[in-house]
Each structure stands twice: as structure tokens, then as C-alpha cells.
Amino acid sequence: MRFLGKVFPVLGVVVFMSSTLSSCSDESSNRSNSPKGWSVCNELFGSSSVDALQGEMGSGVLRVENSLTPVDEIMLSLSGMARRWEPGSELHYAISEHPCDLGVEGRSDEFLSYVSWSAYSQQRIKAGEVGGGWQPVGKSIFVKREEGGLHLVAVISCKVEGTHEDQESQLPLEIETQVRNVPDFDVEVLRKMTAHFTRELVDGLKCKNSPEVPGAI
Question: The domain containing residue 107 runs over which residues?
Fold first, then answer.
């Protein structure tokens, strides 16, 4: 779990994306001018869910807080690292992305997201070697909910084509989402956003084991 120290390493070259945010709801007038940023957030988390998140965070201008890497660059980075992985390798721990971090101007309200290959195999999770609180969700997914459901960590088995035979069992995908400083935030919104994020990653990485992602995590 990477948000405790809030260190945001970003990998990849940020390139210009010609696609812009499609027609927006009324919330768009209270958003910072970042067409590329909103395009990435909408693709990974769902435009209706991003609208719902903004509604839950209340008034104020919602801004993109980080330098965003295009979705295809994220997928290439993750799949490339998985193909280079071998048992005992720790290099993948240094590779992480914060694809969509949002905040309200003038306040400490935040939405944070993270994805990387995990140090936690599902065997270790099942054995209780990485702490308690993990629950199976769908097929090939474990989730840990903290802070009243406002901090979610999911570990997903994802077999990437062309990887070591042990990659699926020993190198799962890890994603994390968190809402900070909005205590009355509807946790169902975050659960649906996290599920949409998971599906986009499973599809983008073409996971050969076909994890089953529920409507909410």
C-alpha cells in the first residue's frame, strides 16, 4: 500500500493526446482546464463515476493534481515489466503509476489512485503473511477495505502473455484508491470506480486468466 507516505513516482513519457473530454455535465464548469487529464480519468474510472465523485466532494474547482501518463503508456509500462520479471526479481517494486489524482482547490479533499505489480502474491495473502482484512471478490481478486471503506487495495491475478510461467501466481497486479478528508463520502461511488479501474486494466493488459470483476469492489 503506497499512500501512507504519499510518494508519487511516475514512469513513462507524457505525450500529447488529441482526444479531449467529451460533452460534460454541469460539473465541468467547476473543473480545472486539463483535457488530457480528464480524458485519462474518464477512461480509467468512468465519466459518470468521476461526475459522481465530484458531487460527493462538494463545491469548489476540481483539479488534476499529477502529471498524467496516457493510458496506453501505462499499459505498455506494466506489460513490459511483467515480461521482464523472473522469480526473485524486485525491480518491479519501483514501477508505479498514479493515473488519476484529483483535489479540490483551496481544500485538502483528495481522490488518489495507484497501480503497480504487487509484492503480495495471493498465496501470501491467503496464508495471512501480509496482514488480515483481505477478502476474496469475484475471480482472482482479493480486496482490503480500510478507513470505513474510503481506502481500497485490490490484488488481482493477471497472466500477461509472454511472461514467466510463475508470473500469474507470484506477480499479481495491485491497485489502490483512496478518498481523503471527505468523511461523509459515499463508499459505493469509490467501490464502483475501483471496479471500473480494475476492468480497464484487465482489458488493457489482456489478462489471459480472465479475472471476473464485479460491479463494485
Answer: 29-204
